[in-house]
Automatic annotation (TrEMBL):
Gene3D superfamilies: P-loop containing nucleotide triphosphate hydrolases
Entry-linked Pfam families: ABC_tran (PF00005)
PROSITE patterns: ABC_TRANSPORTER_1, ABC_TRANSPORTER_2
Listed name of the protein: ABC transporter domain-containing protein
InterPro entries: AAA+_ATPase (IPR003593), ABC_transporter-like_ATP-bd (IPR003439), ABC_transporter-like_CS (IPR017871), P-loop_NTPase (IPR027417)
Length: 318
């Protein structure tokens, strides 16, 4: 568990971060969100000591990170940034294997792990293992960066706008892939983003910052339905609920069953916002959800609005 206690960073007169108290739950993805200059990156980089705090402390599993050597600390904390900086003269496989090789891990084992991670991030190892970074698209390079960060198998992953430089389509695909990876590996991830959709879509929790301070810390649901201040409401915008639905699969709102006769249908692969559109178009407050031609249950207007939580909600099939 990572805990920030009264964390501060001053640059002369500028208070980049002030009195920040925050615990990042193990195995969850926390999005650090907020307007430009609010202190997100400074906060992130104080966790792995790329920036030294001016006050307060960072605890990693109860231990003050000042008592750890920075190199040792960083070995246990993966770091992914927008400009991933792959080594241009090394192949994709060698890039991913950087840290395991550095640590003198077994070669054959590392090779298997590299292939596994390439697969996991959606790159066919047979095709990509031997390529050089210059032969990759931006999205592919970013995938390699994610695979490289995971290769050392760090319990904690810090990410700074990792998908920021990608075009919207590549970003969507990689976000989706990363969400699956995170659900499977259950790393503790802290991700800086200024993209509200990304934060609501990927974050188990969101820490919304403003002018160096924490404005609200909670689940996406908390921020949308129980904003702590006018700033939170305004920052997320009027269409916050719709944004959130666009990032969630319709099966997350499913009440499993054989459906109800006569209801309009929606494909299980679609997002919850599409379900809402179909309901409005068809004038129906419930839909049968269909996968491979078979009805797997229903989704209701109330469930989408968060008025009722389907018994099996979250994680069903998605
Ligand atoms: N090395 C530095 N020297 C002086 N001021 C700095 C330095 N680094 C950051 N700051 C200031 O600290 C504040 C927080 O910066 P930080 O980069 O953490 O913000 P951010 O929320 O990550 O912003 P963005 O979304 O634009 O990247 C800003 O006002 C910035 O100008």
């Amino acid at each position: 568990m990572i805990e920030l206690q009264q964390l501060e960073k001053r640059y002369g007169e500028t208070h980049a971060v002030r009195d920040l108290n925050l615990s990042f739950p193990d195995g969850e993805l926390t999005a650090l969100l907020g307007p430009s200059g609010c202190g997100k990156t400074t906060t992130l980089r104080m966790i792995n000591r790329l920036i030294e705090p001016s006050g307060g402390r960072v605890l990693l599993n109860g231990q003050d990170t000042r008592d750890l050597r920075p190199e040792a600390l960083r070995r246990g904390i993966g770091y992914v940034i927008q400009q991933i900086g792959l080594f241009p003269h090394l192949s994709v496989a060698q890039n991913v294997a950087t840290v395991p090789d550095l640590l003198g891990r077994d070669r054959a084992q590392t090779r298997r792990r590299v292939d596994e991670l390439l697969e996991l991030t959606g790159l066919d190892p047979a095709v990509f293992r031997g390529k050089k970074p210059s032969e990759l698209s931006g999205g592919q390079a970013q995938r390699v960066g994610v695979a490289r960060a995971l290769a050392a198998d760090p319990p904690v992953l810090l990410m700074d706008e990792p998908f920021g430089a990608l075009d919207p389509l590549a970003r969507d695909t990689l976000q989706e892939a990363f969400r699956d990876i995170q659900r499977r590996l259950r790393k503790t991830v802290i991700m800086v983003t200024h993209d509200i959709d990304e934060a609501l879509r990927l974050g188990d929790r969101v820490a919304l910052m403003r002018a160096g301070q924490l404005e609200q810390f909670g689940t996406p649901d908390d921020l949308i339905h129980r904003p702590a201040s006018g700033f939170v409401r305004q920052f997320l915008g009027e269409d916050a609920t719709l944004r959130q639905l666009a990032g969630r699969n319709v099966t997350e709102f499913l009440t499993p069953g054989s459906g109800q006769a006569g209801l309009p249908t929606i494909e299980a692969a679609l997002n919850a916002r599409s379900a809402l559109s179909v309901m409005l178009r068809e004038g129906s407050d419930a839909l049968n959800v269909v996968r491979d031609g078979v009805t797997v249950g229903t989704v209701t207007w109330a469930a989408l609005r968060g008025d009722e939580v389907a018994p099996s909600s979250r994680g069903v099939g998605g």
